[in-house]
Amino acid sequence: MEDRLLQPAVADEVPWAESLTAYDNEHFRIYLRLIDACAGNASEEEMAQAILGIDSVREPARAQKAVRSHLARAHWLVIAGYKELFASQEA
Prior knowledge:
Elements: H1 2-5, H2 22-39, H3 44-52, H4 60-90
């Protein structure tokens, strides 16, 4: 519970852009935790509750929307966005 208090607020949908955003920088840890949870075959409901702090029983549509949106952004980060991370390290 204490860990969740230290996390930034989670949007229902990730603000999308074709480059890294301030939201991405603030939520990078969440993206990594979601990727790890997927590798462990966690359900959307488990990810919503444990990682995003959304009760999927009380708010099933919101939980599903938020998990899928954040997973899509995490996927984009793995496929394309990582290039910007490394480019900033070279500068």
